[in-house]
Amino acid sequence: MRTVKRDLTALENSGAPIWSRPGPGGGYGLVARGTLPPVSLTPVQAVALLAAVSAAPDAPYADLAAAGVRKIMDVLDPQTRTKADALAGRVWVNSPPPPLRAVKSALEEAMAEQRVVRIRYTARDGDTTTRDVEPVMFASTNGQWYLIGWCRLRSAMRWFLVSRIEHAAATRIACSGHHLDEIGVPPATARPVNGRGETTEGSGANS
């Protein structure tokens, strides 16, 4: 019984539309027209996902990515899961602590909803300012994450090192429509995380 309930929980966590009915004639089943999301990974593929997420705790939406990987691991077949767990024990990461959760949450929310974010930012020269920024993209370069957006204080596109953002709060103000093309030409090695096309990550100021 415990095994059955654990398997049902794993199915629900994967997004499968499960129904339950108590009492005589009851039980569990898939909602009509519902389908189980296809999950077919090798142990190496599963560990690759675990390694990528674990090694980048400062990446945007890293917490959600970790939760997604856990859902995938939950619905792997027992043999694949056992092999993946064994291999994962041989892959270690030692990453720096991520930015404050409150800062990350505000930046992630503002980017996803395309709303102005108010940040308190300390530049390289030590100057601290409070700015309203229209987020355009997140970019990782040289192992560090940046928020790139239209700075309303400077009336220009700016790069903000996420680790220097001391406070952030998503406002209810909608962004005015600045586009990726305004950032500049991306370096030849830059690519979007969706794996398609080109990014517009380019050189810019961060102060």
Architecture overview:
- The protein is of the alpha+beta class and 207 residues long.
- The chain is built from five helices and seven strands.
- The chain has helices at residues 2-13, 43-54, 62-74, 78-88, 101-113; strands spanning 18-21, 27-30, 115-122, 128-141, 144-151, 156-161, 165-174.
- The strands form two sheets. The protein has a five-stranded antiparallel beta sheet with strand order 6-5-4-3-7, with helices on one face.
- A hairpin with a 5-residue loop joins strand 3 and strand 4 (128-141).
- The longest helix has 13 residues, at 62-74.
- The model is unreliable at 198-204 (pLDDT under 50).
Provide a short characterization of the protein structure:
Helix content is 29%, strand content 26%.
Helix and strand arrangement:
Elements: H1 2-13, E1 18-21, E2 27-30, H2 43-54, H3 62-74, H4 78-88, H5 101-113, E3 115-122, E4 128-141, E5 144-151, E6 156-161, E7 165-174
Antiparallel strand pairs: 1-2, 3-4, 3-7, 4-5, 5-6
Helix pairs in contact: 2-3, 2-4
